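dumping the sequnces here before i forget
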Amino acid sequence: MHILETKAINLHYGDFHALKGISMVANKNTVTALIGPSGCGKSTYLRLFNRMNDLIDNVEISGQVLVDGEDIYSRRVHVDDLRKKVGMVFQKPNPFPKSIYENVAYGLRVNGINDKKFIEERVISSLEQAALWNEVKDKLNKSAFELSGGQQQRLCIARALAIQPSVLLMDEPASALDPLSTSKIEELIYSLKKDYTIVIVTHNMQQAGRVSDYTAFFYMGTLVEYNETKIIFTNPQNTQTQNYITGRFG
Amino acid sequence: MTHLDTELQQLKDNLIEMWTLVKNQLSKAQEALFNNDKDLAREVVSLEKRVNAFELGIDQDCENIFALFNPVAVDLRLVLAIIKINNNLERQGDSAKGVAKFVIEFDGPFDKHLLDITRITEMFTENITMLDELTEAFEKEDGVIARKTFKRDELLDEINDHTTAVVAEYIRKNLENTEQALQILSIIRKLERSGDHSKNIAEEIIFYTEAKVLKHKGKDKK
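..and the predicted 3d for all of it:
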């Protein structure tokens, strides 16, 4: 079953037509990379799935966005419930000004969970899943700001995982990190795939090749090509895709 | 033109230069055989070192492009194809050298009648034409021209298949020429193998230009 799906999605920011009739699906436990030049609509498309675009003025959306078969823009859906199911990690690590422990526990607490033992278990398992536990287990009460950039990003991933979403959206999650931290995030994405469905926006072609199963190439608000990553990077069917991934665009 | 484009163009230019050298090697080997020209044969043997140097250089350039540029799509297929074409051309260079060594070691001219009945001229001509057409196919990125090689290779296989019987009959009638007859048989085998290398090169050009893998496919599927 397709866990994520859009049907003929059009999105306008005022007069600007940012997404033009995009229909696409993502299957469970896969990683889909969204690539394309700046302003092509890939981040806007990513933000459809947790309704982050709702926060922007003058946005008009038509078409359907389905998560687990449910139209998430229908009136029946509460955004808070949706975001429990669909977690998000941003380009720049954005930990809260709290301890490492509290950063991960935060999502649980705001969702009304007070059971101390339950929270502790979930914090540990989330930090383990985010491949950060061994590095922070002796300093859980220290400020999250004491961590390196790469550790902070993994902390943000642990924070997203704590509420056990089924989908993880990642908007250039490693673009502000050094190669070693980038490699850790990529390994993490690979290992998380067995439990989550991941959609990642990236400007790094090699990263898209390394981490994703499927790749979608966006250009000027349209979905130019969507296929298995290995096909996109060996034999793209569209000339625009080929020109973009080989660095000959424009 | 991107930096990668410049590197790829340089790589292509080097390969074409090697291609021309190998074709000339085969041509000279043929001339040396027909004219019993030992000096020319020695030149072919000596120039084989240049073919080997080209092979090493092109391999190194491909390795560098992989490491530094991470080529994808058509660029990736080009570099992969060049690595294999490079290897096949080097083996064809070996065949030319092998023919030249026979000329150097054989005492006296080969019997013209033997050369005629084994259709060795045709084998040389087909091999050289294949190399010409393949160079053109590679430069023009044209799979149709590359496909001409498959038909020519079939002809080489056919001549090769008949050679054992032809040479055996010749030996029965010309026992004193047994040694040269066996050497000609060996040269025919080398030229047949060289045709196989050209066929491999044609498959690589089609992989590069059309993203199709024709290796180990029957004739009708090519």
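Residues 231 and 237 of chain A are 9 Å apart (CA to CA).
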